[in-house]
Request: fold
Amino acid sequence: MEELFNKISDCVEFGKINKVSPYPPNMKDQDGADELTVQALEQGASAREVLEKGLILGMEKVGVKFRENKVFVPQVLMSAKAMNTAMNHLKPLFAAGNTDKKGVFVIGTVAGDLHDIGKNLVSMIVEGNGYEVIDLGTDVPAQKFIDTINEFPNAIIGLSSLLTTTMASMENIVKEIKAAHPNQKVTIGGAPITQEFCDQIGADNFSADPQGVVEFMNNLKMSA
Reply:
């Protein structure tokens, strides 16, 4: 079974979706994440095992490679597609209560900013690491984040900003969230964002890449 989990991990890492997928060329005509996930479940693996020992492991490797500029956005998208194809087989088992997600992550691009590529990459890699992701989209005001926190009180909040002109919006949203929920954990990121700005506005974490968000959340879970 471990060999099967390793193959699933490789499929996610390299973006091998299914047997008919021609990408990557060196895995042509081999079973992909789709077929191998079915095989693992048929052989008695739990959805949690497939997720943690196969899919998450693969997405962790992609996240680290992306951080180190060893792979780029197209590769991440292929990996995410492979993961999502496999997740189609696991989601009914999660929904049936047979297994649990690691936690809930709520993410949105702050009010005034319509950019979503960075947000989407974070969402894919966080979901690939075993969390439920609630994507609020772009141009999200503080109240929408607060309403979602009320619905998911144990969620971690992620704020994205790609414009220097919306950094003030991010600051206001953090302050409003903290005023409504003083213990709420908020992680921020985006092209103009720095650790200094994070400290200045009272956010709990700054990550320059998606894998940093995963590590922050995993550390919170371990210390809880």
In short: The first strand starts at residue 104 and ends at 109. The mean pLDDT is 93. Strands lie at 104-109, 132-135, 156-160, 186-189, 205-206.
